């Protein structure tokens, strides 16, 4: 993926994460205009990267009749017609705004009527890469038509290596660890949760992955109520930018998060400072990761107290 290396000449990247309100666009043009408006807001705040949430493509189901949009499988079939326009739209928006755009996720037909939850990352030159969601929630398994991805990736984004972990994937340490061992220092988490418990689980996962790997995490969320959609009906959570909890970094890991009606959380991530923090770290979870594997603790054994 090509990029503008000069963006990170000073070791920083300004990132915006969306608390994206779900609407009911009348047609693709209305959806496209909304994306342009949201990205313009992020760009006006100086963002060099903008992150949109999981299931973004399902907002397009609102463009169809009630019978189609109210039934998940029918809406998945229908939204496939927009895939080419989706890619063209976000490539154009990234080029015109000279920014990196993580376009949430698009549920893409694999050619045999099953769908992968795919997150596209667009560069300022309009090129893109993608990461499929690897772990399925109970809701996704229950659909019978959504399948998991089978490949784990790391990208070069604006001079720093980044990786995508879609929502539930952020709750699993080992795939993210593999991405960070491949050099990722920014973990991008497009998410969509409908309960407080779900929002908490993803947030705890994001905090834990930042702690374990000494990386930044950028989490985008959906917001609002969409009674017309079986997947986007209720949306809960706050968008956030997260850091490891250590000297010179936020004690609670929270760099910034949305509150109330805020649409974007925006902050400058200092990757040079992140790397420098290793030298005076209170703890080094990232470097001490391998110490978990010594033979005597490979398996736990049951013991009973002696009389």
TrEMBL record:
State one molecular function term (GO).
hydrolase activity
Give every CN hydrolase domain span. Answer: 13-276
Signal in keyword set: no
Q: Which Pfam families match?
A: CN_hydrolase (PF00795)
Matching CDD domains = nitrilase_Rim1_like
Q: Does the keyword Plastid apply?
A: no
Gene3D superfamilies reported for this sequence: Carbon-nitrogen hydrolase
Protein keywords = Hydrolase
Q: Which InterPro entries match?
A: C-N_Hydrolase (IPR003010), C-N_Hydrolase_sf (IPR036526)
Can you name this protein? Carbon-nitrogen hydrolase family protein
Natural source organism: Lysobacter panacisoli
